[in-house]
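Newbie here. two chains, one complex. Structure please?
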Amino acid sequence: MERILITGGAGFIGSHLAEKLLAQGHTVVSVDDLALGRRENFRSYANDDRFTFIEADATDVDGMEQVIRANGIERVYHLAANSDIQKSAADPGIDYKNTFATTYAVLEAMRRTGVKKLFFSSTSAVYGDKRGQALREDTGGLAPISYYGSAKLASEAFISAYSYMNGMQTLIFRFPNVIGPRLTHGVIFDFIRKLQVDPKHLEILGDGTQCKPYLYVLDLVDAIVDFSFRTREGVEIYNIGVDTATTVRKIADMVCDRLGLTDVEYRFTGGNVGWKGDVPAFQYDLSRIYATGWCAGHNSDESVRATLESLEI
Amino acid sequence: MERILITGGAGFIGSHLAEKLLAQGHTVVSVDDLALGRRENFRSYANDDRFTFIEADATDVDGMEQVIRANGIERVYHLAANSDIQKSAADPGIDYKNTFATTYAVLEAMRRTGVKKLFFSSTSAVYGDKRGQALREDTGGLAPISYYGSAKLASEAFISAYSYMNGMQTLIFRFPNVIGPRLTHGVIFDFIRKLQVDPKHLEILGDGTQCKPYLYVLDLVDAIVDFSFRTREGVEIYNIGVDTATTVRKIADMVCDRLGLTDVEYRFTGGNVGWKGDVPAFQYDLSRIYATGWCAGHNSDESVRATLESLEI
């Protein structure tokens, strides 16, 4: 059993990860600035003796060093980030600070304290728009088109040298769209909110053909925990996801079904990109992670359905 | 004729670049914090009416925005960086701040002011240690092993999204070792300094077989100016260098010749790496830049010789 730090621990994915690690008997310190994370997300285990929540800014190197020392941390899951790509388009400083500077602070605090085990949540956005190409972990010419993708690729860059220079064992998963209980933004969340305001009409950004793979958060968290306890020295990178994908139009249909709405008029804003910086479609080559025997429990449509069933509407 | 900003303008390469741009009739504003840059480097044109030197920290976003607005800047050459890889091994914050945060500040200041034309000095260190592979611009699995390489790759990552989101015209050269007049560090500089202290013995890090291509700074500066006035929207990346390479041992021999020393005893520290984070050998695939018709004026050995001849010893 280990003493584990999760940054972004009150967030959508971080809170599920904390729950899973506690269930396995580990001690978990969760750091979150509660900008996007919420106390409700860890309510079910807030009083667990092996759980500590610290409201703190993960860009503070000295503060993170202090958290690691004071709690005898042995392993770090760094999930703190701005998870809302669309939001930072008008203010790139959000991703500079919340997505990149958090990574630097975590790495520097680990270097100073000698902690060697790291998991990092990266993203398909590091590749940029490479439509028509099955994305492999070693695909070259990475050219992110969003500030979020840039900040995650910049994080991977610093992780590379920190891992080499300090003998760290690092696991990086490049996440696709991840959905499930506690979701706080994204297309499913937006559609529900819009239909609650106006159940007759639904504005859909783009032409509805944008098509992405959706991974269920509990499948992801299982994989994070399984793989992270099997790392070796160096950096291992995996694309993680599902082979299937779901169009935005199909998501709209499923959301309407879930809300019991019929005859909703869809209004498409047109074009095949939801917003500038969005990658409208991508497909991973998953052969690297499949070679380990792993496979997600839900395909893309099933992930959407399970998410809709989990939400209290 | 344009109004041009050079960050790191008092440095080894930046000061040559300013000189060339002034000679072509442009107006040049040079920003440097004088941490590594030196006033002597721009002494010959310090009084030129079209030249302005501003001592400032290029990590200050508001300050850089102010410099751009006050001087009507139309084009930026971003060369400010920690150029001493070895130094930051013990303090990664040096590269975080001087190599990466400068890039972010320049990009953000350009976004706020609408300046679209950018040249960025990247490096072979972004690739990491890929011995036995000819490095192409689209080689995948970039894994820098130095904090310097990380900070340059992180810079490229942010440049990618900033260029896409703001319609910028960006040229990136990935530099090899660059040498010539005004050199302030590196193996040639170190050998001269050591032999001035003790002309009988020379300590050589590693086993002397480390072999790298050396590019002459005036060849590089000519290429930067030629290529940067022919950019289109988007990001163009070129490896730049020479096909030939020079071993550390040969450099030692040439330095001894230049100093008129004979019978110097070489003491090798052993191993084939000079220091942790050093990439002991690499070879570019230069076909992309050669396809434009460009070729360096000096090969690797000639660059070393021309550098030695230029130094006042």
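Moderator note: DSSP finds nine helices and 15 strands in chain A. The first helix of chain A runs from residue 12 to 23. Thread marked as resolved.
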